[in-house]
Amino acid sequence: MNRKIRGTILILAGLALAFGGASVYAKYDRQATLAEQNSKVLLQELSLEINDRHLGGVVVEAPEGQMPQVMLQGQSLVGILKADEADVQLPVLESWSYEKLEYGPCRYSGSLEEENLILLGHNYKGHLEKLDRLEAGDEVEFTDVAGKNHLFRVAQTEVLKATQVEELEASPYPLTIFTCTPNGQSRFVVYCEKK
Fold this sequence. Notes:
Blueprint: H1 3-52, E1 59-60, E2 69-72, E3 75-83, E4 88-93, E5 106-109, E6 117-120, E7 139-144, E8 149-161, H2 165-169, E9 175-180, E10 186-194
Parallel strand pairs: 6-9
Antiparallel strand pairs: 1-2, 2-3, 3-4, 3-7, 5-6, 7-8, 8-10, 9-10
């Protein structure tokens, strides 16, 4: 094959890769924007529900080991996560699924009562994208659906491989929060102690 044809093929392949990359980024950006909008609506309604109790949501007492929850817009919510240094103020859903992660962070396991709550969320813009800004000593607040504020302080952060699930689940801290790193290959984990 002569140089000119080979060069043309390489240029076309490069353009195809660039177009494919742009398409993937555009899809991710649309998902992130929709997730941010979903969480803002839920946060607004949940904040009103907690503060004013006028939207008609019903707080459901939870069995032992679970957390009280309120149903709003078809989602079961357990509270609001706030961390100013990470620009986070989001509703937290009672259990996780990939669909629920489009609305905000979710309870992966544990509870506040048992002091082993683990939350996970997407690293989308407007969600946990800036979680890696948290450092030891930063304040994290969780307001449950009954309106009780639980104050925490970041004890440490670390990056774990996606396969290190047992280590994550064995967290000795009362609050653990994690999200994917930007490349999706690892998990950024924030361990919080009671303040």
